[in-house]
Amino acid sequence: MGGVRVVPVGECACLVEVGDAVAAASLAAWARASGLVAEEIVPAATTVLFDGCDPAAVEAALPPMDRESLSDSGPSVRLQVTYDGPDLERVADHWGCSTDEVVERHTATDFTSLFCGFAPGFAYLGGLPAHLTVPRLESPRPRVEPGSVALADRWCGIYPTASPGGWLVIGTTEATLWDARRESPALLAPGTRVRFEVAP
């Protein structure tokens, strides 16, 4: 497979290096659906970790990469947001539009959870076009409240718990992002399609 490299990690794991987060999430979704034998399949920004597997078997089974294969593969979640974040004006200035237009663009975007990291339940949501890239704060806040909906680079994310953070917060949601009592603790597991809407 062109552009893909399989790196064995010991005898029972391997790391598959791909081009970007979309390709990583797509490969992970395919592997889970195909029944590929592995104890864990963990996508990241440009890799997928296959743990508890035969690295040679993984390499032999890899399919041609399809960047669009995630478009309808996962469950769909709609999240209500109160757009009152402290950085809403900053994003509007960066995009050269009004705060209402920021809300319109955000709610019109089809997001997909590509991988999770940083904190349990924190999903990196891809979908923003390149021209809507935003910078991080120069100095991270010591505390970002749970449920904060934020942007950084081309990512959208929601803070599942209070933590330091440097992303631009544009709103809040009351959704529970992580609950260990659920069968799938992460609400926005990789492959989940996400749409935001204005809270009533």
TrEMBL record:
InterPro entries: CT_C_D (IPR003833), Cyclophilin-like_dom_sf (IPR029000), PxpB (IPR010016). It comes from the Bacteria. It holds the Pfam family CT_C_D. Gene3D superfamilies: 3.30.1360.40, Cyclophilin-like. This is Allophanate hydrolase subunit 1. GO terms for molecular function: hydrolase activity. Keywords: ATP-binding, Hydrolase, Nucleotide-binding. Residues 4-188 form the Carboxyltransferase domain.
